[in-house]
Amino acid sequence: MADLKxxxxxxxxxxxxxxxxxxxxxxxxxxxxxxxxxxxxxxxxGFDLDELVRLSQNPEATGTLLEIDNHEKGExxxxxxx
Length: 82
Fold this sequence. Notes:
Blueprint: E1 4-10, E2 18-22, H1 27-30, H2 36-44, H3 49-56, E3 63-70, E4 75-81
Antiparallel strand pairs: 1-2, 1-4, 3-4
């Protein structure tokens, strides 16, 4: 089962300002712990968290799932299964 990585990059930097790792074996439970900022961005993009949990259980589903660029705030959020 893949881990969910949420990376927040600011100001065009390549190194994340924040990285949140949610282990795959607790993703279903931990989905309630995803930062509010990240959840708001996911909802704005129409991202289905339940589908993410299902994907994390598939051993072939890895890599970047979603990249969100917020040009007003100068930040980028990347969600990946690793």
